[in-house]
Amino acid sequence: GAVVSQHPSRVICKSGTSVKIECRSLDFQATTMFWYRQFPKQSLMLMATSNEGSKATYEQGVEKDKFLINHASLTLSTLTVTSAHPEDSSFYICSASLQTGNYEQYFGPGTRLTVT
Amino acid sequence: AQKVTQAQTEISVVEKEDVTLDCVYETRDTTYYLFWYKQPPSGELVFLIRRNSFDEQNEISGRYSWNFQKSTSSFNFTITASQVVDSAVYFCALSETSGTYKYIFGTGTRLKVLA
Q1: Taking residues A102-116, what's their average pLDDT?
Q2: Sign of the dihedral through C-alpha B56, B57, B61, B62
């Protein structure tokens, strides 16, 4: 159980375009989803926390107008990178949490974004 | 402030050697969770273990073992008889137990096991 999927797994887009990444909890309802960014050979950095039906909470230094997060249902959150630039190229990982019990996060397989 | 330190950036060992990955954490919470994850070249995080702050028992799972010592705020991970397939980046993480239960990740240790 506790499977999280991400789509797409890889995406290449041109500079200036927007790209949407989906994160789905497949076998449980996730009240909270998290979005992380990981640059090559670096750690995971939390970008934002989203609760179903409410606005996401962004970490300091993350542009909320550039990284749009929508958590419209208990099984789906989306991250849209708007007007992407090469410096947005990164590995984006989502996680989902039941927010009960031990509040464990279940991680998706990640999406590798390359902006040309 | 909460913090996780993995001082070893990269470790290389020869197959069949034992290797210990260090993790030191800082927190003011009395209740917290600690985790270890493996990230192979594919990028997907693989969950290895979760430890509650009240459970200081060491754990062994096959070739993996974990040593949790609250007195030194450490949660070290040992791989016995390492194998080439163990080559990956390993992350230690600390979870808050308030608010949204965010995870704080260490910087990771890249383990290379040479044949």
Answers
A1: 92
A2: positive
Q: Determine the number of helices (DSSP H) and then strands (DSSP E) in chain A.
A: 0, 11
Give per-residue pLDDT as tens, A11-43.
999 999 999 999 999 988 888 999 999 999 999
Query: Is A29's Cβ below 8 Å from some Cβ in B?
Result: no
User: Could you say which of B45, B102, B107 has the minimum Cβ distance to residue A46?
Assistant: B102
Partner A contacted by B70 (CB < 8 A): no
Query: In this structure, what token pair is assigned to residue A10?
Result: 């890889």
From chain B, the residues in CB contact with A38 under 8 A are 43
* Assigned token pair, B101: 């239960």
What gap in Å lies between CA B108 and CA B34, rounded to an integer? 14
Chain A residues within 8 A of B106 when measuring between CB atoms = 43
Task: Enter the tokens of residue A92.
Answer: 């984006």
Coil vs helix vs strand at B98: coil
Reported as a single tens digit per residue, the pLDDT across B73-93 is 999 999 999 999 999 999 999
User: Is the CB of B101 inside 8 Å of chain A's CB atoms?
Assistant: yes
- Residue A31: its pLDDT value, please? 84
Q: Which residues pair with A59 in a beta bridge?
A: none
A91 touching B (Cβ < 8 Å): yes
